[in-house]
Structures are given as C-alpha cells and as structure tokens.
C-alpha cells in the first residue's frame, strides 16, 4: 500500500516544459507518464471501453430526444495521444470533446496541458467523468478539465483550437447542428472527426488511431473552416440549464 501511495504521488507530479521537450526520448517519456496517470485516475481501467459506460433505462429516452445514438465505443488512450501529436496540439490550447463519454480523452488532453472541456449528454457517463476529475484533484494534478452534461448542440465551442468528435454513429441531424457552430470557428482551429462535416470545411489531414471496436487503426479526418462565416450567424449560443463539474 505504501508503494502504491508513493507511485501515485510520483505520477501526479506534472512534467515541466523545457527546451529539450522536442527530443523524441523525452516526449515518449512524457506520453508514457500521461498514460500511467490516466490509468490511476480510471482505477486501472483506462483501456476498458465498457467500464462505467453503461446507461440506465431512464437515460435512453433522453439520448433519443437529443438525437444521440446509444452505441458506445472509445478511441483508446494511446490512439488519442497519437491524435494530439498528429494535429500538433500545444499546451494552453482550447480543446473540446463533443460526446466525451466517460471523459478519458478530456483528462488526457488536460494532462497534455490543454484547456479541455468534455460535453456528454448521458448522466452516468458524465458522472464517471466527474469521478475522474475528483481523483485528479486528490492527486494534485493540474490543469483540471471541465465536464458539462448536456447536448453539445447547445454549447458554445467557437473558441476551440481543437475539437474532437468520435462521431462514428452520430446521426446526420446532430452533425448538421455541430456544423452550424463549427462554421464560426477560427480558421486555424482543427476539427478531428470520424465523419466529415458538410459545409465550409476542408479536410487537411487524416490521423490514424487505435480504437475499441477494431483491431486495425481507425481513420479520423482533420478539417478546418475554409471561409469566414457571416458574423450574424455567429452569435453566442443561448446557454441552457446544464450540470458542470
């Protein structure tokens, strides 16, 4: 038990940025540290997509009303870190996961130094995210992410530098709602998605990542806004009643 406590303390110490962070060996060490931290936060279940991801019957109708699919799968932690590398994520950037599930990607983004927010409509999965947040606080890990329970079609994410959507089963109606808001992003912002958004978006890259539903790496498209949106269409989304942790 003493050994485990010491290990948790050591893993909780954030790595400080230094001039030699571009050295591959140091970068790999940092990424390995992030994976170890995530596994402690998620109680040894960071690679288990089914852990704490089930929803109860009372949530089913809510998800259907929000035009959300009930199917659940996750990008695996190593896969998400490869996404962050693929898009050149930098500490301090604004990150959103639209449909964040149990919050693992959002926690990893925070461990990577991003200002991260996860948005999830399913209460049980959102509560699992909050449970991870409490563990981060207890371990003294900073920066901390934010988890919002609600539909991301009702959340203003126009200040994002990076958006991630594991949108494999997202219905077209929901993607259209996301595209309306995403069209107001800064042209330098990057949208990483399993399904491309229709509208003023250009695919600039494809990133491969490990996922829970396939033995082969999965393709995620990286999109950017091609042209500035009409300012009249980019008014802030009216905030709805939401739970935040």
Can you walk through the features of this model?
34% of the residues lie in helices and 20% in strands. With 245 residues, it is of the alpha/beta class. An 8-stranded mixed sheet has the order 6-7-5-4-1-2-3-8. The protein is globular.
In short, what is this structure?
This protein has about 240 residues and is of the alpha/beta class. It is built from 7 helices and 8 strands.
List keywords for this structure.
about 240 residues; alpha/beta; 8-stranded mixed β-sheet
- How many β-strand runs? 8
The rounded Rg comes to 18 Å
The coarse overall form would be globular
In percent, how much strand structure appears in the residues?
15-25%
Largest sheet: 8 strands, mixed
Distance between the termini: 30 Å
Q: Helical element count? A: 7
Mean pLDDT: 84
Q: Helix-strand pattern, N to C?
A: HHHHEHEHEEHEEEE
Helix content: 25-40%
List the uncertain runs: 1-7, 9-23, 62-70
Judged by helices, strands and strand pairing, the structural class is: alpha/beta
What topology, given as strand order, has the largest sheet? 6-7-5-4-1-2-3-8
């Amino acid at each position: 038990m003493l050994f485990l406590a010491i290990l948790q303390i050591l893993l909780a110490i954030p790595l400080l940025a230094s001039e030699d962070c571009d050295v591959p060996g140091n970068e790999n060490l940092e990424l390995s540290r992030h994976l170890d931290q995530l596994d402690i936060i998620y109680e040894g279940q960071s690679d288990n997509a089914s852990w704490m991801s089930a929803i109860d019957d009372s949530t089913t109708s809510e998800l259907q009303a929000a035009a959300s699919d009930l199917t659940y799968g996750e990008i695996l932690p190593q896969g998400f870190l490869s996404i962050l590398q693929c898009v050149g994520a930098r500490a301090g950037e604004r990150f959103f996961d639209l449909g964040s599930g149990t919050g693992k990607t959002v926690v990893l983004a925070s461990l990577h130094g991003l200002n991260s927010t996860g948005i999830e409509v399913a209460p049980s999965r959102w509560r699992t995210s909050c449970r991870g947040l409490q563990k981060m606080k207890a371990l003294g890990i900073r920066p901390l992410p934010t988890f919002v329970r609600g539909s991301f079609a009702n959340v203003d994410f126009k200040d994002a530098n990076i958006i991630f959507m594991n949108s494999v089963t997202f219905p077209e109606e929901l993607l259209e709602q996301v595209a309306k808001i995403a069209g107001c992003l800064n042209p330098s912002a990057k949208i990483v998605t399993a399904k491309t958004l229709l509208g003023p978006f250009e695919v600039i890259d494809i990133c491969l990542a490990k996922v829970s539903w396939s033995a082969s790496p999965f393709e995620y498209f990286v999109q950017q806004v091609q042209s500035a949106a009409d300012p009249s269409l980019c008014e802030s989304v009216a905030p709805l009643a939401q739970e935040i942790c």
